[in-house]
Every structure is written in C-alpha cells, then in structure tokens.
Amino acid sequence: MRVGIGYDIHRLVEERKLFLGGVEIPYIKGLISHTDGDVVLHAIADAILGALALGDIGQHFPDSDPGYKNMPSGDILQRVVRLLAEKEFVIGNIDTAIIAEEPKIYPFRDKMIESIASILGVDRSKINVKATTNEGVGSIGKGDAIASYAIVILEPKT
Ligand code: ZN
Q: Computed from CA positions of residues 132, 17, 7, 126, in that sequence, does the dihedral angle turn out positive or negative?
C-alpha cells in the first residue's frame, strides 16, 4: 500500500469560469492558472504522483509548455491515471478538502464526487469531498484564492 498527499492553490480573478472537482460552479470569479485552475483535480493528481514517487504535476505538465494551456484538468488527471495503471496500482480511496470563503461548495459536493469518480474510473464510494472556509483569515479568507488538499491510498492491482 502507498500513500500520497497533494496541495494546490490558485488566485480567484474576474472573467474566469470556476471549476472545482471537474464541475463548473456558477460564480463571479474563477481560478487563474495555465490550465482551467481546478485546484481539487490538481491536488488529487499530485497526491497520486506522490504515492507513486513520480514527482509532481509541475514536472509532468510544465506551465512553460503551451500544449497544456487551458487544458481541462480532467485530461491531466486521466494521464496520471494511466501512469497509475502502468505501475500496476489501483486507488484505495481519496479524501479531499477544499478551502474557500465563497462560493458555497456543499450544494456541488455530490456532483464533484460523481465527476472525480468518473475521471478516475472508480466507484464513488472511494471518493470524499469536504469543504471549509478559512474563517476570513489571509488571502483565502478575503476571497482572493481557493485551495485544496488531497490524500490518496493506492493498493497493488490484484
Ligand atoms: Zn493547480
């Protein structure tokens, strides 16, 4: 069994769509990144790469490469899933935490779980999504950024 952790944060800016866990969430701002800025999928991708001891998404999908510009983060995660299969591991379970002052994440939780499970090709019972605010503290608390943590357990393919 192997374990990995992932963390990601992006700035919220106007005139960007907001994607979290592969779900578009109606909001006045979105996350800025060279991809679609989905911090949840980025944290999960990093956690899986970490568990495989394969570095991080910055190494695999460098922001200096224009090929990844505005790439849907689901595509990035699917490539990471291919690496996982090559190494002959499967996902045991994934837990994620989203830290956002706004918008309210809870109404989108089920959709996110569905979306993450479908990108990874696993049963939704293996995925958990939690959300919290930053209690008004710092840049996340001011609504200038959204962050996400993810932790993953990988099990050898049987
Ligand atoms: Zn990111």
A: positive
